[in-house]
Design a protein that fits this description.
297 residues, 13 helices, mainly alpha, MetI-like fold
């Protein structure tokens, strides 16, 4: 057997061994990811309620019921508004923080540790803590100080409940995007900035024409992650308002939970979940394609 044949045999054995190691992960992936998705698609075309074993095929009836339900359309509007505000604040504030932390600021190491702390806390726990602060702490403080506007909880008013939740989401969600932007800033060639400075470029022009183009991939990543977080928001709403008051903060994920586990309409919940998944994937795909056209290689 020549050396080439020996190498081919060796590589073939290596491929078989690597494939054997991948089999357990593939099985777990199929059981806990692929199978639930396929099951959800199938159940969305039935009248499954989680109790009766007998299934009746209803075709597109569940999807028709979803799109004709004003409650679902209201949750879509909530998600769109909430996600848009979350993306705007997270992207802009985290970029500003990253630029500040990337500069020669005194004590920035300590500041990095402090601002990253909220990211390690579970959203559900944070929601419960802020729920107690907003519903009990602030009204009591307002009563003691004589501020009547503080005596009514922000979470009890339909006009302000979403913004209270949004504040908590921004406070918790700034850390990781800031770290991503800090990493993105390291990819900007220093020689370009130095050349621009020698040519008399202002700080804004250097940011606009040098830094920002190199940050397009990072901006895209932060945009997609934040958008996904906004469209699928559940933990904060569950722990702070449960969708109230008067359904003003009921998100699509919260509606899916209510239909599936409270009202026992699992087939409708499956249809809503698939619609939400399609929305998230579509928006993310459009943003990624657009950013690839703006990428600098």
């Amino acid at each position: 057997m020549n050396s080439q044949s020996k190498r081919m045999t060796f590589y073939k054995k290596q491929s078989i061994i690597l494939s054997l190691f991948a089999i357990p992960q593939a099985i777990v992936y199929v059981i806990f990811f692929i199978a639930p998705i396929l099951g959800g698609i199938i159940y969305s075309f039935t009248d499954y309620n989680g109790i009766n074993k007998k299934l009746n095929f209803v075709g597109l009836e569940n999807y028709r019921a979803v799109f004709s339900n004003s409650r679902f359309l209201k949750t879509v509007m909530f998600n769109v508004t909430y996600s848009a505000l979350l993306v705007i604040f997270i992207v802009s504030l985290s970029l500003i923080l990253a630029i500040i932390l990337n500069s020669s600021l005194q004590g920035k190491t300590v500041f990095r540790s402090v601002f990253f702390f909220p990211a390690v806390l579970p959203l559900l726990t944070m929601g419960l803590v802020f729920n107690s602060i907003i519903t009990k702490g602030l009204p009591q403080l307002g009563a003691n100080l004589g501020f009547e506007s503080w005596e009514i909880s922000l979470l009890s008013k339909p006009d302000t409940a979403m913004y209270a939740i949004l504040f908590v989401a921004i406070w918790q969600g700034l850390a990781i995007p800031t770290v991503l932007f800090l990493a993105g800033l390291q990819t900007v060639p220093r020689e370009l900035e130095e050349s621009a400075s020698l040519d008399g470029a202002t700080a804004w022009k250097k940011f606009r024409f040098i830094t920002l183009p190199f940050l397009v991939p990072t901006i895209t990543m932060v945009f997609v992650l934040t958008l996904k977080q906004g469209l699928m928001v559940f933990d904060l709403i569950m722990s702070m308002t449960q969708g109230g008051p008067a359904g003003s903060t009921e998100s699509m994920a919260m509606l899916i939970y209510n239909h599936g586990f409270v009202e026992r309409r699992l087939s409708v919940a499956m249809a809503e979940a698939l619609i939400l998944a399609v929305i998230v994937c579509t928006v993310s795909f459009i943003q990624i394609v657009w950013s690839n056209r703006k990428r600098i290689y």
